[in-house]
Amino acid sequence: MGYKHIEVKPTSGFTGAEIGGVDLSTHLEDEVIAEIRKALLKWKVVFFRNQNIDHAAQVAFTARFGEVTYAHPHEDEPIEEHPQILPVDRSRYERKNGLRRSSYESRWHTDVTAAVNPPAGSILRAVNVPSVGGDTQWTNLVAAYEGLSAPLRELADKLKAEHRFNARLRIPSNSKLAQRIAANPIVSIHPVVRVHPETGERALFVNPGFTSHILDVSPQESELLLELFFKQITKPAYTTRFRWHNGDIAFWDNRATAHLAPQDLDHIEVERVLYRTTITGDIPVGVDGFRSEIVEGEIFNSELPTVLKNKAEKVAEPALA
């Protein structure tokens, strides 16, 4: 396979590979980083077992692949000294949002596609995961696109779609999460098929978590087309499933994958704590050269979102005498 410094073992025919021979707690030579990137581009998601690194090491490893973003556009309680890290913590989520869920997004989704520049990649580190249940699944959006018939690929190449937070969720309007989304709406228009900036591959860039509708078609046509595309990207043939253990790390190409959080934990009293970092992404470009456009919101990168910055400054203002 052309790897001199790492071991690469695929986990399915289209998607996913475990990488061995790497200790992420140490400084990795540029050649090792290049081989990890090569494996990531081919398999779309790669896994590292039994790493046991801390917050600082996770941020440092992420930074070897690009600028590390702020934790999340709606994260107003960042980890002290590590604002790049988003806790994926069931008990924290319930306390913070008043909703009983094991994940911020419980449907198939690509991270933060409501932003005009969704993250290029995401890295998730397991710290305290249950011994039973809690698997995560990924799907290969390039394979899904290539699996469409030629006439459907030609149609998809021409389409654009709106992505937004809370696109298809029925979150109670009085919940803390719904209030934060309303205070900081983030909406973008993306090509339905994006061209990967590194490989040139075409990926079917829609997902049930964020895609609200397809532009320039009737509502009925939009729903039928999205149903077809959603079924295509979630076909088992294109997916891989990962069984977490404490210390494991998953690293996925967010430009070419969607993933599904655990579906089997909401009725069980277990703790599940992981930490996510993301890499600043480029603005997607379609087959016809269309570049994604902002409807509401701003570029997502390492900076604290303006709405959160304004909130923090307001809290810090001294009281008038």
From TrEMBL:
Belongs to the TfdA dioxygenase family. This is TauD/TfdA family dioxygenase. It comes from the Bacteria. InterPro entries: AtsK-like (IPR051323), TauD-like_sf (IPR042098), TauD/TfdA-like (IPR003819). SUPFAM superfamilies: Clavaminate synthase-like. GO terms for molecular function: dioxygenase activity. It comes from Anabaena azotica FACHB-119. Residues 8-277 form the TauD/TfdA-like domain. Keywords: Dioxygenase, Iron, Metal-binding, Oxidoreductase. Pfam families: TauD (PF02668). Transmembrane segments: none annotated. Its cofactor is Fe(2+).
